[in-house]
Specification:
With about 230 residues, the chain is α/β, with parallel strands linked by helices. It has a single domain, classed as Spore Coat Polysaccharide Biosynthesis Protein SpsA, Chain A, CATH 3.90.550. Helix 5 packs parallel to helix 7 and helix 5 packs parallel to helix 8. The protein starts with 5 loop residues before the first strand and ends with a helix.
Length: about 230
């Protein structure tokens, strides 16, 4: 038997095309008690789309970064278990159910989604793996644990895990920082294979710029955590 409230947080920035399907997928899961969307200063029609959805929405006037949006939900929402889901999963968001069971039934303290190797919604080849490699190496150097999913934004945590996390960067280093701190505090985890799909940055100028920003944010996060030890 499981106890407590399951909250799912969906931080979004310019997700007008997929957010409705993402929420529809989450609404299929009976284990979820509440869904909250953090609209991180979207500049497209995301806000208008969100007005049509029957979920709690917290709107930020300016874009602050994914970590900032996640931290906002952590600070203002009530929960016993909290999950984070990206807004571009579409109907495959229903796969998050696989991550909820092991946590609410006390098998592990947190779970992370492990995507299929080819889970791309475009015909592009994606990146070269530098960002994923840095994240994976960083987690190993700090915790001596090998993990394939340190960048995955699809996660479920017990509240006590979140309460033990002191440093939440506001940008792309958020998942790496939370992973390292959870592991260093002795919490148990499981990487759960899922059949999720989402957008990947293409091998274009904009795609390389995005991945470059990710790489720098993760590197900064790892450096900051070095001095917090």
């Amino acid at each position: 038997m499981r106890y407590g409230k399951v909250l799912i947080v969906v931080p979004v920035y310019n997700e007008e095309d997929l957010i409705t399907q993402t929420i529809d997928g989450l609404k299929k899961i009976d284990l979820i008690d509440e869904i909250v969307i953090i609209n991180d200063g979207s500049t497209d029609n995301t806000a208008r789309v969100l007005d049509e959805l029957d979920v709690n929405v917290i709107s930020l006037e300016e874009n602050h970064g994914k970590g900032y949006a996640m931290k906002k939900a952590i600070e203002v929402m009530d929960y016993d278990y909290i999950g984070f889901v990206d807004g571009d999963l579409g109907l495959t968001s229903s796969e998050i159910e696989k991550l909820i069971y092991p946590v609410v039934y006390n098998n592990v303290d947190f779970t992370i989604a492990k995507f299929p190797e080819r889970s791309i919604k475009t015909n592009s080849k994606g990146g070269f793996g530098l960002v994923k490699g840095l994240a994976k190496m960083g987690v190993y150097l700090y915790t001596n644990k090998k993990m394939d999913t340190s960048l995955s934004g699809q996660r479920i945590y017990k509240k006590e895990v979140i309460d033990a996390i002191e440093y939440i960067p506001i940008h792309y280093g958020i998942e790496v920082a939370m992973t390292i701190q959870a592991l260093k505090n002795g919490f148990t985890f499981e990487e759960i294979p899922v059949n999720m799909t989402h957008r990947y940055s293409e091998r274009s100028l904009e795609g390389f710029r995005h991945r470059g920003n990710q790489f720098l944010d993760i590197l900064k996060t790892l450096i900051v955590m070095l001095f917090r030890r």
